[in-house]
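sanity check this:
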Amino acid sequence: MNPGRMSRPDVEAGRSLAAEEARGVGAPEQLLYRLEWHVIRRLDGLLQGDYRTLFYGYGVDLADLREYQPGDDIRYIDWNVTARMDAPYVRQYHEDRELTAWFLLDLSPSMDFGLWSRQKRNALIDFVATVARLLTRHGNRVGAILYGDRVQQRIPAGGGRLQVLRLINELLKQPRLPAAPFTDLSVLLTNALTVIKQRSLLFVVSDFISAAGWERPLKLLSRRHEVLTIRLWDPCERELPDIGLIVLQDAETGEQVTVDTSDRRFREAYQALARQREAELAELFRRADVEPLALSTQEDLAQAIVRFAALRKQRRRHR
């Protein structure tokens, strides 16, 4: 059984926080208020307003040329000018005043894995709501494409707090799908290639448990847009606790199997499979030429976003 595709029926019987909020009137407003108070307010202090380390983009209008300095992005070296001047020069662009961001969201059955209050789906909703609000506060526009067993819905890009509430509302309304044919993320990514015409910042939020072949449309997206992959994972997908006999269920197919987690050799084999999957994903992201970021269901969201910003800043310096 694939680590990351299993679920525990006894755990999933509990209602998630997002599901509880979806039952009440004004649930999107309540969820956003909670995030503004507990996450966004902290981020304002932790990042000190430097959201460019997380969200940045370049316009298409050339502003100037200047000599290369250590830390500059080598993709913006003007090789013709460099050859004439016998020294490296980089192109500078007018930054876009308005950024358009799209969330490409995986809501397939494997995203319902986790403890009842910390399922991957919950982490997805909190992440999207937080990042969307950070973006719209600065005049940017956000939209989304939702995928379950197919493309379920497209939410056109818009701005302001009302747009964030709309995103939250639509996510809370999405049904939890029963076991279905294996997820195919290439359907979501190919749809984005067709729908999103203007150069944008794309967040692909998924556990990337999918049929093969999604790396090609992901690479095509990265050629047109700035793409960040947010891979959601749960600690139990990497290492099983020693708790005796448990029933695991494949979240994608519904197949069930009883395993003995007190068997050390079984736990070691499970961990080895998880490490192999991690290595395969890292290679796929490298081939797709995208920036991978991982978010655990157990991680503090504000700290995770600060970590993302630091990683992006470090990676840009080493390009």
Notes: The radius of gyration is 21 Å. Confidence is low (pLDDT under 50) at residues 7-25, 57-62. The longest helix spans residues 264-288.
